[in-house]
């Protein structure tokens, strides 16, 4: 066992998307055990996959799992206010001063989900890295870390060959999703494929309207189109 699983005592209502028990996954790769919350079957499958990866000399580790609405909102507002870097499709920092609201929204959505619409809300989707080759504090989650000579290139190659056997796949792939390719983001398909059809646009609109989200008006007037492009258009395998 590379981690311990403890049942969370209460159900987590995931903002109109689904209702599910989550389990606590205690990862040993963060300078001592660190807690992440996962959908139960996702946790079991990931633990099995991590044990198999360990045989190949890879320390498959989580850097982000279930993320509540408030955390996704904080990420969004930090980017919308310029307090956190906004990247273009080539992972280059963009100066958002002087850009109109629609342009800023489109840039943020290349790499960050709308609060309430993130797949991380479900507990089925994880951002992962190889703790054998890079410290989590040094991780930037950029493509260069996962290709060629990047510290997580061996991990990414291993996942491409083996993740499907454990039920995981990459939902954000070049040419198949509006969200930029994320070789660190894996999804447990047996569960996530059941959750996406439950996505409720009306609930999301209510949730965002009642929040203190920056650029809220620009998002709400385009919400249907944004959901179609950045939530529903994903890789299918």
UniProtKB/TrEMBL annotation:
Annotated InterPro entries: DD-CPase-like (IPR052179), VanY-like_core_dom (IPR003709), Zn_M74/Hedgehog-like (IPR009045)
Database matches in Gene3D superfamilies: 3.30.1380.10
Residue ranges constituting the D-alanyl-D-alanine carboxypeptidase-like core domain according to the UniProt record: 37-190
Xref: PANTHER family: D-ALANYL-D-ALANINE CARBOXYPEPTIDASE (PTHR34385), PEPTIDOGLYCAN L-ALANYL-D-GLUTAMATE ENDOPEPTIDASE CWLK (PTHR34385:SF1)
Name recorded for this polypeptide: Peptidase M15
Species of provenance: Shewanella glacialipiscicola
